[in-house]
Write a structure and sequence with these properties.
Length: about 190
């Protein structure tokens, strides 16, 4: 089946492409000629994921899904949360992750999680799927793979960051992988 993935984030698209295999023929926003800026004004991951998928469904009447995701740091009261993409004021990942490191300083309380909510719209009906990866924020960045906050996030049970893992390793344990797995299982059962 064909599904549009409503994202402008090339890294997310590549990760999800690697996860779906041949089960789903993934269409990107450029594949459907959508060059518009999709509004994202909600205060929760659910609201934003929903807003993005509904925008595409209403405009194109195509089955689609959108992912809203981010990093929640416990001792920063859950920040950057829904503001993850522009925490330091711009989309520059380096300054965004540096702001998290600066705010945490030497604190020993470094637990955090990545959370993804996916909103799928299939034949006009919405379904939500969530995935969480628990871990902690390192004191310094490490690794060059992945994107966003990966260089400062060490998942529980590992002594390396997401940015030091191969894409296969990250994609087997990440928040996005867990949410996508639920979506794929749902589609299999729905058929
Ligand atoms: P779209 O809205 O177009 O999908 P976006 O990058 O704006 O792309 P979000 O609004 O969901 O996506 O913001 C998510 C931000 O959270 C993203 O830009 C990263 O900074 C961070 N993030 C999400 N998933 C991540 C991951 O797997 N690894 C590292 N950082 C991640």
């Amino acid at each position: 089946m064909q599904l549009v993935f409503a994202t402008n984030n090339q890294h997310k698209l590549e990760e999800v492409q690697a996860m779906v295999g041949t089960d789903i023929e993934l269409k990107s926003l450029s594949d459907i000629n959508c060059l518009e800026d999709i509004p994202e004004t909600g205060e929760t991951f659910e609201a934003n994921a929903s807003q993005k998928s509904q925008f595409i469904y209403n405009r194109y009447q195509l089955n689609c899904f959108a992912d809203d995701s981010g990093l929640e740091v416990d001792s920063l009261n859950g920040e950057p949360g829904v503001y993850s993409a522009r925490y330091g004021g711009t989309r520059d990942s380096e300054s965004n992750l540096q702001l998290v490191l600066d705010k945490l300083g030497d604190s020993g309380m470094r637990t955090a999680r990545f959370r993804t909510v996916i909103s799928l719209i299939l034949d006009g009906k919405e379904h939500l799927f969530e995935g969480v990866a628990e871990g902690e924020i390192t004191k310094e960045k490490a690794g060059v793979k992945g994107f966003g906050y990966d260089p400062i996030f060490q998942p529980s049970g590992y002594d390396i960051t997401f940015a030091e893992m191969t894409s296969e390793e990250k994609n087997s344990i990440s928040h996005r992988a867990k949410a996508m797995h639920k979506l794929i299982e749902f589609l299999k059962a729905a058929r």
